[in-house]
Amino acid sequence: MNLDDLLFTVSVKPDEEVHIKIKDQAVCRDKCKEQDRPCTYVCPARVYFFSEEEQKIIVSYERCLEDGACYVACPYDNIDWRFPRGGSGVSYKFG
Amino acid sequence: MPKEDFDCIVIGAGPAGSAAAYILAKNNLKVCLVEKGDFPGSKNLMGGVLYSRPTCDIIPDFYKEAPLERPIVEKQIWMMKSSSTLKFAFRDKDFSREPYNSFSVLRAKFDKWFADKVDEAGVYVIPKTTVTDLVKEGSAFVGIKTDRPDGDLRAKVIVLAEGGNPLLALKTGLCAPLDPKKVALSVKQILFLPEEKINERFNVGKEEGISIEMLGDITEGMVGTGFLYTNKNTISLGMGAIIADFVKQKIKPYELIERLKEHPSISPLIKDGVVREYAAHMIPEGGYNGIGQLYDDGILLVGDTLGLVNAIHGEGSNLAMISGKLAAETIVEAASKNDFSKSGLASYRQKLFDSLVVKDLHKYKDALAYFEGNQPTTDLYLDWLTSSAKEMLTVNGQTKKEKQKKIIKNLYKKRSRRKVIKDAFNLWRVFK
Description:
- In chain A, 21% of the residues lie in helices and 19% in strands.
- Chain A is of the alpha+beta class.
- Chain A has one domain (3-82): Alpha-Beta Plaits (2-Layer Sandwich), CATH 3.30.70.20.
- In chain A, the strands form 3 sheets. Chain A has a two-stranded antiparallel sheet. In chain A, strands 2-5 form a two-stranded antiparallel ribbon. In chain A, strands 3-4 form a two-stranded antiparallel sheet.
- Chain A is globular and about 40 Å long.
- The two termini of chain A are 19 Å apart.
- The model of chain A has no long low-confidence stretch (mean pLDDT 97).
- By secondary structure, chain B is an alpha/beta fold.
- Chain B has 3 domains: 6-67 and 105-176 and 292-354, FAD/NAD(P)-binding domain; 183-284, 2-Layer Sandwich (D-Amino Acid Oxidase, Chain A, domain 2), CATH 3.30.9.10; 367-431.
- In chain B, the strands form 2 sheets. In chain B, strands 3, 4, 5, 6, 11, 12, 13, 14 and 15 form a 9-stranded mixed β-sheet that branches. In chain B, strands 1, 2, 7, 8, 9, 10, 16 and 17 form an 8-stranded mixed β-sheet that branches.
- Classes of the chains: A alpha+beta, B alpha/beta.
- Chains A and B meet through helix 1, helix 4 and strand 6 of A and helix 3, strand 11, helix 6, helix 7 and strand 15 of B.
């Protein structure tokens, strides 16, 4: 099963406010190139995607499962991560 | 939001937070329990197996009314290679009878029930509310800021039970930045299967379940394990590994679990299972050495926020509940002296260190460091064990004596005799 289908099973009420921000895109673009930008493959929901065209990380925060692995894996502490506002974000039916 | 001040604010409606809030309310303290999820439990996750005894210590006979899946009557450990599996299993009829040993649970359901009990006990339960910061006056924590309008609350003491993604503890410096080598990322799928199919495939009765822990090649060289738990009409199947290993090996967690589903020992068990939910969660794996700051002026930390997870035995929710209970007992004592300062809460340390929580973590204090440095060696032995089993069980004209010789020769080909003795000693030291 591919990830998009898997994520389709999860109920997420996206916050209107963005709860994840990249602190400095230049760090992802230049410094983190060597590390292959761990957020783009460690995140279990593929929230992070590096756009070669735009030369920056695109954050699809509405896919977020709120595990937090991205900011732990980030080699440059470059992710400003918060929980979505109360009642929004991921809501497991089974857990 | 309530306008009055509370004796205690508990942040997070998981097993630790709910246990603390419940006991505080039973001791006539004025408590509120703040939860960011849509409902208590909606953001909570584990494998998961819930142990009966520590839960009974908080709510006696909880199993008569709580939404549980199946009592676990059999525990299996699987050592896996890509096309073979060596299995160990233990089943006991006592595990299917009161007071039971453990249950498979789905936390969104169980935690909601637990929070309802907390509510009935008189706690002001406030869901849909994210705590954005802790309020400090001088050196003391005195309240919380939330994302609700007029959503700030004050209390004499706070219990921080925010789980394995401890943003508030990080923000206030109560815990050190999370080390990717000491935190695991776990992903799981809930697979629907009719109840009778589960009973047949796992050879269990209607009210019986099994748990399987998996080691070996399935983690693709990472320090980690896989798991399968039978629920009523679903299966929890998942894998977890150290985050630093995911980074190093560039493995995508969701692909890892899809590969596990293809394994010849797994695929027939989950055949035709329909994915009902996908989920991910962080687990603190620091063990004894990773236990963080326990308390400060006006605040106590509990559960995963403190890092109370026994990775070897797959225990966490039970340790969370015990820590929540001990934190509550500390607060009840502090309330009798009206002293919630650091020194007024100091007995929490003694209580926790005298309990089985810290004693069990201490027993395995070197385990993570051992596996961290030794994954290739661990895999080498798992590989040797499975191929030895295959060798001994394959009837092919060679005598058993010849086979035995070959098995031993195979081992020494991979690892010198001296190293094997050293490995055995090290393993004994970690698990003794």
